[in-house]
Amino acid sequence: MPGFCRLCPAQKKDVVLLQCCICNYPCQPWWQDRKRHYWHCSHCGCVQVPAQFYLAAADEKAEYDKHENNPDDTGYLTFLGRAATPLIERLRVPSSGLDFGCGPGPALNRLLEDAGHTVSLYDKFYCADETVWLRNYDFITLTEVAEHLADPLATLELLWQHLRPAGWLLIMTKRVQDLDAFKRWHYKNDPTHITFFHWKTFEFLATKWGTVAEAVADDVVMLRKPA
Fold first, then answer.
1. 21-43 mean pLDDT
2. Distance between CA 138 and CA 98 in Å, rounded?
3. What contacts 24+ positions apart, CB below 8 Å, involve 213-221?
4. pTM exceeding the 0.85 threshold for the entire prediction
5. Is residue 220 within 8 Å of residue 84, measured between CB atoms?
6. CA angle, corner 41, sides to 39 and 45, nearest 5?
7. Looking at residues 133-138, what average pLDDT do you find?
8. Measuring CA to CA, which residue among 183, 180, 179, 160 is closest to residue 170?
9. What is the mean pLDDT of residues 122-143?
10. What does the pLDDT look like over 78-118, one tens digit per residue?
């Protein structure tokens, strides 16, 4: 679908519009702040940042290095408990899982291991263990990861393939509530946040995978793979 993005003056007419990074529906240029442009998908509600505003890998990692996610911090563990508790309630003991995007100081795995489960770790910057793709899992978690994904559909499809039947995919990310509020939303200000999910985005994924999206917290969604 050809079009012209009034938010991108360097573009010329007849440039192909962006496709939504989740549902592949044509996106529309929607809004820009002083640093970046944002495109909105009317089909699944996703808001995405165009690729020209992505950080280089070294700069992206430098931003992550600033985070102080101490696995011994009780406040941080309480935060992760919003994901761990509903997952633990749904798992058989023992189950095996993957914490995708675990970061430099993994903590969610501790909560899950204390409940009798085993957890493998993967992070492209801090724990790039490619052997995790040699097996399948009863659960896979992404806590504060989905908003960083440049190609979220491909990544989520890969993770879904590595779930065993009846396995759980847990995604923790703050959701777009409405477009007007988005403009004042602090969450968009992190330069590593490039994909923003709406509830409709999760409904699209659930329909695609033949399951149901379950909101277990304001920022936590779980999807169960059909048995």
1. 96
2. 8
3. 216/86, 217/82, 217/83, 217/86, 217/172, 218/174, 218/175, 219/82, 219/172, 219/173, 219/174, 219/175, 220/82, 220/83, 220/86, 220/170, 220/171, 220/172, 221/170, 221/171, 221/172
4. yes
5. no
6. 115
7. 98
8. 160
9. 98
10. 999 999 999 999 999 999 999 999 999 899 999 999 999 99
Of 3.40.50, 1.10.357, 1.20.1250, 1.10.1740, the CATH number of 2-224 is 3.40.50
**3-class SS shares of the chain: helix, strand, coil, % to 5:** 30, 25, 40
Exposed e or buried b per residue across 178-196, where buried means at least 16 C-beta atoms within 10 angstroms of its C-beta: eeeebeebeebeeeebbbb
- 């959701």: which residue's tokens? 175
- Identify the burial level of 135 via C-beta atoms within 10 angstroms of its C-beta, where 0-12 means exposed, 13-18 middle and 19 or more buried: exposed
Q: pLDDT per residue over 107-126, tens digit each?
A: 999 999 999 999 999 999 99
